[in-house]
Amino acid sequence: MKTIFSTLFLVVFSVVFHAQNKWETAKKTALENKELILLNFSGSDWCIPCIKLHKNIIETEDFKKLETENVIVYLNADFPRNKKNQLSAELKKENASLADQYNQKGIFPYTLLLNAEGKVLKTWEGLIPGDALAFSKEIREIKETQKQ
Prior knowledge:
InterPro entries: Thioredoxin-like_fold, Thioredoxin-like_sf. The structure is a single chain. The chain is of the alpha+beta class. The protein has a single domain, classed as Glutaredoxin (3-Layer(aba) Sandwich), CATH 3.40.30. The chain is built from six helices and four strands. The chain has a four-stranded mixed sheet with strand order 2-1-3-4, sandwiched between helices. A hairpin with a 5-residue loop joins strand 3 and strand 4 (120-125). The protein is globular, with a radius of gyration of 17 Å.
């Protein structure tokens, strides 16, 4: 009986977990923690400016502090081309949906700062100018203006 209950619980949990995609999870987390959402469209294995953006900004400690200090929820909508880097069908579908909503021109990289409801507060087309510290400071300043 215990095994049947455990199996049933895991099946129900996995269905609920998969039904809540990363976009919905990001919005929920941002709302609960009073954070902004940073949505980045990238081509991780073919777009040179995207690769530079990730290396010089997204992967830095200054940027990661934005996440650990509950300033932003970071969401990457990636569109890789190499076969070895392909995403799951579910993730491809979600990224395409995000692109339909926020990146209809197909710009790469394209970065948006959104509130928890998904309203666009600021956008950056192409490689973000400056360094990670300046970018982090700009995001913090925008968040401060949202509190008022």
